Structures
1.
Amino acid sequence: MKRPLYTLSSVVVPPRPTDEDYLPLPAAADPDAAIVVRASHVEDGDLVLARFPEPEWPGEPRVAGYFQEPYPAKTGGPCGECMDCRNELYRIDERDVHRYVALDGPGANVPCDIWPRNAPVLIIPGPIPADELTPEQEYPHSIVAFAQAAAVLLGEGWQVHAGYWGVTGRLSDPEGEDIAVVGVEDDGQLYVDVKSTQQALYPVRYNPEIHSDRFLDPRDLDLVAQVIAETVRENR
Ligand SMILES: [Zn+2]
């Protein structure tokens, strides 16, 4: 379907970064098909790639700021009740709810992804089928396999002890001392608990939220192992 493109002021769309911080696009998504539309013209299933922050100086073009994890739009009105609707930036209530749209979240137990209706958005028009992966392709490695690969990177003598069903991996150093546990939180976040050397009796939960500083692909054994090993080295 033909949609009005965003034309009001100049926008610049550099190529999407391809480094490891950026989740690869689904195979079916064609980056050349990306268009800039107003947030109010985004439709369900469009892949949301970038926003356009206000330029620092008036008159400068707005440059696409890419999301590390593009997401399929799930459009609706802001709920007016969640933490993002109520935060200081928006303070959305019944009176001004019509000035905004939500491109993700409304009604899904997550905060609304709020956009001013007229804001430019870079999208690939959808719907875009997700990569069809079997569970084995999506999660080819157990958690303990990541811990084992990290132990190799940490050096000779490091050992891994698997928790039940391999869903955790306990790393011990060449002296045999338990140093860290690799596991997955209930919300899906991979974590590394590094035992504090100051409080040897009580392991201190260290959750560096390693998802947040770069994108970790569960298929990428080497990269995930590297992040685990770095986290252990920096925090032991
Ligand atoms: Zn909301």
2.
Amino acid sequence: MDSVTDDLSTALRARGMRVTPQRVLLHRALRELDRHVTADELLESVSDRLPNIALPTIYATLDLLEELGMVRRVQRAGTTLFDPRVEPHHHLVCTRCGSMQDIDFELDTARLERAAAKRGFVHERTEAVVHGRCASCRDAAAQAGASSPRNAAAT
Ligand SMILES: [Zn+2]
Ligand SMILES: [Zn+2]
């Protein structure tokens, strides 16, 4: 049993919950994907290993993993993405292709959190989202008119 699975088992047992092969497999699949994924993409990635799994089960397991602090929910216009990376980081979201990238940046969020507290809001985490154009979309826009093939790596 690898350490990632160990962490999950420990967290589940601490709450008196069962360590099922399905939970273990979904958690591992998420870690293997190692990027921001939608519930559908996670379903797709395990469909060969768990042919009978349905989307509601995926959502229920993601809810559980979120409760255990093993995944984070991040919003992108219209979709919820699930992020296996739970340590503090921020996001760059391309408004053209919808790609989302991590960005590590030391942001002093204390003032924002104090302002939130003044409104009686209890913050849990604060993260920044920078909206704009990713490098490949920027290049594509720059080359608009020129017919050069694009090897955009959408993440
Ligand atoms: Zn883009
Ligand atoms: Zn992220």
3.
Amino acid sequence: MSHCRYIMIILFMLLFIFPLDNFISANCFIDKQFHVQVIDDLPPDSSQLKVHCASKDNDLGDQFLSSTKKDFTWSFCEDFFNRTLYFCHFWWGTKESTFDVFNDPRNCIHDGPDVEGTTKCVWTVRSDGFYLGYYDNNGNFIDDLTYTWPS
Ligand SMILES: *[C@@H]1O[C@H](CO)[C@@H](O)[C@H](O)[C@H]1NC(C)=O
């Protein structure tokens, strides 16, 4: 039996293992795990916020946030080639907006501030717009107005 045959078998097995790690959300096989949190910080007496987030192969469905359910979080493994992309559609009264909430393992989004080592992207929805927040290496939370509601 040649070494070549062993290598072929191992490569063949790896092809099966790699796609699987996307399904093991609690435990990423070799890739880093990320968390995205959406927080409703809109005035309590205003319209209910509806959020629908999805990636190419994971649809999180409609989420309704309010003063009693202020946030939701999901976790996923970045794929080896950094191709994971999640976008969300937000509806608040007559306003709505859609954008990528995660498309970059370094900054959450490509044009986000450079925060090395972050694994949690926090989107806080306020009446003036969407704040992207990170925990820095010291565990401090920093957030900034990233997108405004389209008028
Ligand atoms: C994915 O992103 C990380 C963090 O920015 C980087 O270190 C790594 O080299 C990237 N991998 C690929 C395959 O581009």
4.
Amino acid sequence: MALMINDDCINCEACAVECPAEAIYEPDENRNAKAKHSAPISNEHFYIVIEICDECSGLNKVKCIAVCPMDAIKVISPVNKLTKKR
Ligand code: SF4
Ligand code: SF4
């Protein structure tokens, strides 16, 4: 499983606040040292760094999806996750 934020995002920040792995970044924000690359993934809406996201491992729900008011966070296929690796 890998997660992606789509264009329905209204940049409310709720998901980033709730993410226990600090894997969600503001648009235009550079990724931190835990990520492999520093360039932002999106300049328009919040984004998830899949190398950092642990899919809320050990928790009883996926926190970012649970709090998103726009249903903008979608599960993408493992194939997409592999192709995103650089
Ligand atoms: S699934 Fe969990 S760890 Fe991954 S981005 Fe969402 S809240 Fe963060
Ligand atoms: S909670 Fe949803 S609408 Fe708000 S910033 Fe995250 S993805 Fe965007």
